[in-house]
Specification:
With 108 residues, the protein is α+β, with helices and mostly antiparallel strands. It has 4 helices and 3 strands, in the order βαααββα.
Amino acid sequence: MGLRAHPGYAKARLRGSGPPGLEARVMAIPGRLIAQTPARGARPELYAATRPNLEGGLYIGPDGFEEQRGHPKVVAPSSRGRDEATAKRLWTISEAMTGVEYDFGAAT
């Protein structure tokens, strides 16, 4: 099992499909006060990809309050993140949407 990681609360341009107008401006306030830069948000993923001797199955995230920002460390995934049925459903939907399938039994 591979490593997993999450960026915490990072200023990414993924919020473009969010609420319009006043609601968007109100929601931007926490982003300016709390969110870390995209580069800092990438640190947990880079840590998971490059840190030697990390065991498979670990989950990496920021070490700060509520894992919103900070330096990478091993963290515990939420109960939703540990739900096998949800993981299988996500994988199935991802395969269907991308047209890419991977047979884990065939890997060497």
